[in-house]
Write a structure and sequence with these properties.
Elements: E1 2-6, H1 13-25, E2 31-33, H2 44-54, H3 62-68, H4 81-97, H5 100-107, E3 113-117, E4 120-124, H6 142-151, E5 156-159, E6 166-170, E7 173-177, E8 191-198, E9 202-209, H7 213-222, H8 228-235
Parallel strand pairs: 1-2, 4-5, 5-7
Antiparallel strand pairs: 1-8, 3-4, 6-7, 8-9
Helix pairs in contact: 3-5, 7-8
Length: 238
Amino acid sequence: MKFAVIADVHSNIYALNAALVDIKQRGIERIYCAGDLVGYAPFPNEVIHTIKKANIPTVMGNYDEATAYFKPTCGCDYPNDKAAEIGNQSIAWTKKHTSEESKEFLKTLPSKIEFTEKGKKVLIVHGSPRQINEYLYETSPQEELEEIMSQVDADILICGHTHLPYHKVINEKHLINAGSVGKPKHGDPMGTYVIVDIGQDVQVEIIKFPYDYETTAQAIEDSELPNELAALLRTGGR
């Protein structure tokens, strides 16, 4: 019983299309999205249209929320003032160029998706069950992750937001991060997503896939978005 989870597409239609092709070629029919469809790249409406057309169940990310409700910031944790400035320019551009129809769709996104598969309860959120913009890193303090998992009424918790994929087992529960389709931070430009296989055990495969990142990077440079976002896309960096 396999399904794929994508996350953090961030207006990168070329990465999204490549991910969907890769998933289909692997014979996976069920796809979920852990949020953040928009931001950072210049194709928010195209990404939303594709997600709607493919009927992919999607939770609301912090960037989706900020865009839909015209919030001044996306609630991101930037490492320095320069990164915060770039982020603020990005959210301003995204709010301006995301259509009203697309914003209305973003408003309909739930905060979580829950289902049961083979007796295992699955919970999909964007940041954490506690907060839409909380970062659950693989390297987060073990006590913190144990506390979160102990409070979750699920056997499998899947999230995004960090853009760094991983799978950890914490007190017999599975914590999975789907990484990022459209704005990777793992050090190379390939996108990532995960395939979850629930049988007697839970198997997780982290998939890295190539796509035409240069076309997206050039589209960023041709827009009013900060050019630094194109450079980050080429390197898979922060």
